[in-house]
Amino acid sequence: MSTRLNKKALEHARELLRKGDVVHDERDDWSEHAPSTADENAFIDKHGMDQFALWHLGEDTSASEGTKGRYSFPYGDFRRLHRCAVISAESRAGQYDHTSIEKALKDLLADIDDA
Fold it and tell me: d(Cα 66, Cα 26) in Å, to the nearest integer?
């Protein structure tokens, strides 16, 4: 697997932060706040895969383009940036040695906490 940092998604997350579209929730809240599979599919049907990709900081370039499996490390619910998602994704990125993604998430979390 060759997962790289999705720079467009990071720019999107930072724009949400600048606009104040952030939920300052706690680490364990992501299991309740994460979009369901049905929510993801409805979002893709309405907005397309390019918009779906903007909500994920990881992109697996070995996975087929145009599939949900290509994208990982979600950071929000298709409306707002969630602190709990950033914490969860940072932990997973570190666990699987995705250092550039882990660093981007760590920096994003620091910016959320400073806001």
Answer: 32
Instruction: Look at strands 22-23 and 3-5 and give their pairing.
Output: unpaired
| Confidence band for 78, pLDDT divided at 50, 70 and 90 | very high
Residue 102's nearest CA partner among 57, 65, 54 is 57
Dihedral pair phi/psi, residue 71, rounded to 5°: -115, 140
Please write the tens of the pLDDT for every residue from 18-55.
Answer: 999 999 999 899 999 999 999 999 999 999 999 999 99
Q: For residue 56, what pLDDT is reported?
A: 98
Model's pTM, two decimal places?
A: 0.95
Pairing of strands 56-60, 3-5: antiparallel
CA dist., res. 103 & res. 94, Å (int): 9
CA distance 60 to 71: 6
SS3 29: helix
